[in-house]
Amino acid sequence: MKPAKSLDFFDKVYNVVKQVPYGKVTTYGAIAKYLGAGKSARIVGYAMNASKKAEVPAHRVVNRNGMLTGKHHFEGTNLMQQLLENEGVKVINNQVQNLNEVFWNPSKALHKID
DNA sequence: TTTCTGACTCGAA
DNA sequence: CTTCGAGCCAGAA
Q1: Which nucleotide is the nearest neighbour of A40, by CA and C1'?
Q2: Helices in chain A by DSSP H: which ranges?
Q3: Confidence band, pLDDT 50/70/90 cuts, at residue A37
Q4: Mean pLDDT of chain A
Q5: Is the CB of A54 within 7 Å of strand C?
Q6: pTM (2 decimals)?
């Protein structure tokens, strides 16, 4: 018999990303840490790759440096940057400028998911 | 089944 | 300052 978790890691990631406020961004590591994964930031990014089927604002998720590492996975060449700038996030050369201002920390803003 | 790769991060040299 | 290696989990071949 299978324990059947309530939510898989991917689902948790989606749940968090979907709660990212407009005009804010978060990082893979922050999400991973919030989920208790800590060093599994890669998995968060990998989850984003699979998030294409989910309604997740993946463009609001960047790496810890604020760099749009995943923009290459979006349509066109600068769609991700356009989406962020459209929300008031300054992005230059695939990198968020005022990351410290628009950064949204799930560990501080949310409670536990379970 | 094994093997490889990936939208990351951190510590060490 | 830059560069490298290891750890993490899931899905595809």
Answers
A1: C8
A2: 9-17, 28-34, 41-50, 79-86, 99-102, 106-109
A3: confident
A4: 88
A5: no
A6: 0.90
